[in-house]
Structure formats: structure tokens, C-alpha cells
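Hi again,

Forgot to attach this to my earlier email, sorry! This is the prediction with iron/sulfur cluster bound. I've pasted everything inline since the attachment limit keeps bouncing my files.
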Amino acid sequence: MTDPRERILARLKAAPKRPIPECPAWSAPTYGADERKAKFRAMLEASHADVHEVTAADWPDRLKAILAAKGVRSMLYAPDSAAGRQLAAGWTGDFALVPYDHPVEDMKEILVTGVDAALTTAEAAIAQTGSLVLWPSADEPRLMSLLPPIHVALVAEETLADSLAEILTAQNWAASMPTNAVLISGPSKTADIEQTLAYGVHGPKELIVLLLNAGDGR
Amino acid sequence: MAAEALKSDFGGKAHIALNDPKLRANFRRAMDGLMTKRAAQFADADEWNALRARGAAVRARALAQLPELLERLEARCQANGIQVHWAETTAEANAIVLGILQAAGAKRVIKGKSMVTEEMHLNAHLEAHGIAAVESDLGEYIIQLAGEAPSHIVMPCIHKNKVEIAELFADKIEGQAYTENVDELTAAARKALRGRFADADAGISGVNFAVAETGTLVLIENEGNGRLSTTLPPLHIAVTGIEKVLEKLEDVPPLLSLLPRSATGQPITTYVNMITSPRKAGEKDGPKAVHLVLLDNGRSRVYGDSELSDTLRCIRCAACMNHCPVYTRVGGHTYTFTYPGPIGKILTPQLEGLDCAGDQPHASTLCRACADVCPVQIPIPDLLVRLRTEAVHPSATAGVKGGGSAQSLSESLGWRGYTAMYGSPLIYRVVTRLMGLFGNWVPASAPMLKQWTSVRTKPKFAAKSLHQLAREKGFSHD
Ligand code: SF4
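C-alpha cells for the complex follow:
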């Protein structure tokens, strides 16, 4: 037995067997329908994110206005996502749309320092902690929500759940975990220097959430 | 290896730390802030009790099935395309990491925060082989610039104030002017590290939870450096202790609700990063290869004792040190080894041996503050007492490294004499009588007494013992 794996496992298996304890009852908090959205907004805003309520029809214009006011010159977008296509159709914004359409190796410069913002969608949202649930994909790669100084996330109100526990069960994540799943609950931050909060240490300095209202299309 | 030569000198270092007003102010301020923020998170006692009972059970369940879960984790990771390595010692783990990097021709490494790689002294090992490893967590980056070790497991540079950091940055970062503005200091680090992320041939990270059911590595952080280290470079190596495994994905939410709230008083960290595979065909980013290194380094020995193995439930939240009256006063470097505070006092002697860290279980008042706040209910004070005992009377089963190393002839004779005295009325009477007659002649500087009287006044012996006085007053024997 010279293999470290065998030796470690042998030692663990030789240890006295212990009973497997019961899991005591616990459930994540739940909210009523109105309370849920208010909680989500309040939690996100408390962690320094901006939340805007938008509709399926007006969000591209709202996005344009918000980013133009911040002086954004270029925004990374996903040309093959539904949101990306809607945005790019007839784009006449004040700033350039930069597609993430090649592997990172071919466009590292642009990604690392060349864009001011990026737009992604979120799979779902969580009221308890004010979190966005992202499942980055081939269309909407992982670095979009990470490298540019401003991250804009579009999330549909009907995907708003109470807790992560609820989402894991309802969507049966255990059966099909993606390459990467990530919860985002605000802009990048640190308190490493004298416990003073500072934003944008490595990831985005700003997180802008566009909450897509269900149905009505006002 | 440097790590193996280390020996704890708690008393000596504590003395220096206690006389350093700047250090004490830095820790006091930080710990007060962290305690207040945590208390606000767990204001609802019922919620806290139910949640921590669940968290403790989830960890205990995982440990009860540890070997099976490790095998399942390995199988699931491999099926997902993550390569799994096992290391019995830190030297083996260092060699594995170095081997992976060399095979990939990697020269530049960017690191996310990881206490296990601190335990391995990985950076020094890589550097000795011509590979530069840059820490990217702001706190870790600061102490790497300063050439120091972390003094806290969550906030590694908590011992430094902003003036010290401002001086350090002005000195070490090219073109950086002196500023105490925290936003400017943070921006300077972002700028300096952006390029290092982009250039890195590999990223190295720790792991908070490894889920056996799905082969998923869960990493939590606020800065985004952890996500960058595990996404931008073409190669990702995750290093974890074997105890970090969880049975199911559904075990993550309760622990995720305990860890950041206990650690920094945040409801959740900014990022919760769940990694299940390397980049798949068609995906545009993410590392092309992911490796998981499982480090034992004494943990399987700790596992052999059913009481001491509670140590392995730890989720490294640091609440125990934040609330420890000893840690707050002496700071993290006093503990010499990687893990300071109450968790360090039970973990270090077991990993490194009671012969080189045997003084640590004594560096406690047993006030139980740590046990009160531990989100996974580790009975730290009980384990401290147990380790004190193991140092003198090693139990046959436990096999704690260095057990029995504190045995001393004079101490055991002393206790034997004490037992004999209290076991025999005659000897007791003779000894108390002698003490009454001659005790006050014994100088405070007498051998053995000296240590005790160095910080206390020597008591005065009464000429007559209480028993004698009682007898003279006519009270009968009982
Ligand atoms: S022992 Fe408990 S309180 Fe201390 S770091 Fe570990 S989990 Fe947190």
C-alpha cells in the first residue's frame, strides 16, 4: 500500500464507525408575494446594487439611458442570447455594443480592459439574500459578469424565489449542474483595509439589476 | 521544510503582543466590529438555534460517512472532467501542485484565498522552483507584499491599519503615491493585479464545500478574485482538506446561511461560485483543465478519535477567534502556525503534534465564548481540556501526535504527593502544621514556586490551620 489515496482511505475506514445523526428540521424563510419583491430589492440595495423595474418592451431604452448617463462608451453583450438579439436589433445607442463571440484567448485585451460594462441575464433571483442566480453558458460566458466595471443583469420577476434552498429543490439542480453556477449579491467589494467597505476591488464596481415585470407590457 | 521546524512559543509571543499598543488597538477595533455585525445577524435566537443545529448535523453526517463520500466525490469529479489527486502530507501536496504546473509549462500563478495552501507553505515551494505565485485577495496581497503570514483566517491583514498599508503600497507598488484613502488603495490593488490575472498561466484556489453528490466545488468570496482565479487562467488547481466534503447539494444552503453571517455579519457573500467541470466544448471561457488536490496532513488521524474528530466539522468562519478574549488581545501571529484562535488551539496540536504546539490548549480561560458562537457547535473548550489531558496521559486509542509529551517527573511526583496528603489525615495534619510553622520562611523565589509568584503575591500562611482553630474551639472531628 504505497498509494496515498489507499493509505488515507484505509485510515478513515479503520476509524470507529459512528452513527449518522438525523438532520433536525430546518427550513429557509418564505415570503408572501408582495413581501418577496420588497425583500429582494431591499437586500440588493443594502449591498450597494441599483434595482430598476422595467418591462419587456422598454428595457433596452432604459438600459441605454442608464449607461449613457454614466458615460459608458462600450458594452459587452451576448449576440446569441435572446436578450442580446433584442438589444442589438436596430441598436442606435450612444455607445458601442461589443459582442462576446470568440473564446477568451482571442479577445482577452478587450475583456480585461476594453469594455466599460456588460449585460447578462439571470436564471433566477433570491429574495432572502438579494441574490441573482447566473448559469453562464456558451452564449453568455462567465467573465461577462466579472471583468467589466459595470455589470447589468436582466432578471424576470416571475423567477424570483424565496431562498436558494427552494430553487435547488424546485429546479432539481443536483441532476444537472452546469459547468459553473454563480450567485451574485451586489458589486465586488472588500473590507480588508480597516473593515472599511470599498467597491470594485476585482469584479464590477457597480451592479445594475433590471427587474423585468411580469406580463402586462406597460 | 520550514513548517516542520516551527514550534509554538505562545507565552513568549503573547508577552510581546500584549505590549504592542498598536497591534492591540487594531485587533480590538476589528473584533468589536465583527462581533457587533454578527450579533445583528443572529438576533432571532430561535432561527439561530434551528439553523446551527441543522448546520452541525449536516457536517456531522458528512463526517460519519467521510471515506465513502470522498470516494463518491472523486468519482463524480472525474466523471465531470475534474482530475483528483490525494496527498498525505503537505510535502506531497506541494509536489502534486508543482507537478501539474510544470507539466502545463506554467510559470505565473494567480491565487485566490486559501488557508490550506498557507498550511502547505505552497508559495515558498513554488518560488523555490521558479514559479511566481501572486496572492489576489486584497488582504493576502497586502501581507504578501509585507512578507508576513495571515493573522486571521478570514481577514488576513487585520493586524495592519491603513497607515501601515499606505506606506507599504507607496513602497512596493510602482508609481503608487502615498494615500490613506481606502478607495484609492483598493483601486491601486485592482490595477496592479488586473495584469497578473490576465498573464497567469494557472489559478490556484481553496474550496469551502466539496459536494459529493454532484462533484461540485463551492467557493465563496466578496472580491471576485476567487472567480477570476478560477475562470480566467487556462488551468485551475483547487486545494482542500479532506474534511470539506458535503453529502448533498441541499446541504449547502444552511451552511451558506451560517458561514458569512458568522464570519463578517453579511447575509451572504457577494459571490457564491459553484464549479462542476472544466470548460466544455463550445464554451468561450473557463479553465480547460481543473484539478482537485485532497490534502490529509493529519486529518485522518484526527478522524480516528470520535470526540476529537468534532474538530473536523469546522467551516472556517473565524467566529471563534473574533469572540475569543485571548485572541483579541494577542493577535493571530502569536499562535505561530496557520490557524490561530480557538480553532487553531484544537487543530494545530492535532496536526502538528502536542510536542510542538502543546502550549496552545493552555492558552485559554475556558470561558466558552467560542463554543457559544460556533455555527457547527464544536465543543472547543471540552476539546481543549481533552488535549491538555492527552499531553500528560495519552489515551491508548486516540493516538494524538505527541501525546504524553508534557509528562514531567516533578509534576507527576507533585500530584502524587498531593494525592497522598489528601488521602491520609495524619500526613495532612503533619503537612499543614509544618506549613504553618515554616511556610512563611520559604522565599517567593524558591524553585517551582517562582513561576507562580512571578505574577502573584505569595500568600501568608496562618500560624494555625482552620482545623486546629476549630478543635481549640471545641468542635468535634466532623
Ligand atoms: S471552530 Fe466553529 S467558530 Fe471556529 S472557525 Fe470553525 S466553524 Fe467557525
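Residues B 314-320, 342-343, 373-376, 378 surround iron/sulfur cluster (CB under 6 Å). The mean pLDDT of chain A is 95.

That should be everything now.

G.
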